């Protein structure tokens, strides 16, 4: 059983127990009480800044004979895309591992297999992570290859054309999905012209995909003074630092440092959009508003409030719209925090005939978050779900490295890794209610509905006046 399967099984078990705890069903009377949350062992992180201003963190961890490494590059992600080429960064990340100045894509794959590991790259709004792992004895080779991919990608013409063709086909498939249209429209409504609105792939980004465009983007976005390398596994700190210095010490930026993103808006006039999808038998509902950056003082209590609302199987949206009303298979809600902004969202796909009724229940649950204190048992169940999921997700050394890298990208310090669970445990019902009043007021929430306008327009009239769009 691989790591992904283990985590999926454990998460499913946690979800099932959380759902039972939040439902009306009663547990057997003689079960022992839940044990106390175990603290997350805080790793000892050794830090160094190279002469080129690149940060290196080393986390020695004995046990598994494998080393994991993550190179995070801030400012290289989706928010760096131009307004008319959204999604370009995801294509850039995918193509990093398809060729370098020394190796083609096949040679890269064979090299990684040769040292018993893997390498990939993934883009987020605030950056790109290039991740790799290998047998501990092959650490120098792993970091050499990681540096080669990060510093000298070649973006071969054939690989770029293949990626372009695949992306076009993928985009066509996505455009047929109402969830894609709803997400794109909601993101634009929430963030306006801020770069955080550029998270979905666009036809324009695919059309400008050339080796030259990729090389130019790489030269601008990849630079050591905005990079962090994290190395973890059974390796001595001094040895890891020496290998990192040899692989990355001569890396220099080739262009002037680009500006950081401006702070995203915290509030925006709500907008109501109906995207017509003729013949659709269900409506895709998305609600959202701008929220806060990861470093904001409200992050932890708002995270807990959004989980109570819609972040688990036993959340209020699920219990109301699915279990009680039977309007949908799944109703969700949550908080997404980034480096200079964030958003709160909620979603469900419902039958045409209950579109208006479902929207009414969303409003009721949003308003309830600010009007009522969350009962003690519900608070404890939610805290256990949040902290348990976090502790499970950070058990593996590769996951720890990725979590640290992602936290760094959004501005959170290394210490936050161990602070998260105690801070969640310390949140009170009064704080959650305050977050409800401050960020979940339905009068501040934008709504996007994708569905058959002939079937749902009349149901939406009692809520707000919706803008009608054909796509």
Automatic annotation (TrEMBL):
Which part of the chain is the Peptidase M16 C-terminal domain?
Answer: 209-384
Which GO molecular function terms does the record list? metal ion binding
Q: Which UniProt keywords apply?
A: Signal
Question: In what residue span(s) does the Peptidase M16 N-terminal domain sit?
Answer: 75-201
Q: Which residues form the signal peptide?
A: 1-21
Q: Does the keyword tRNA-binding apply?
A: no
Give the matching SUPFAM superfamilies.
LuxS/MPP-like metallohydrolase
PANTHER family the UniProt entry points to: METALLOPROTEASE, PROCESSING PROTEASE
The protein depicted here goes by the name Insulinase family protein
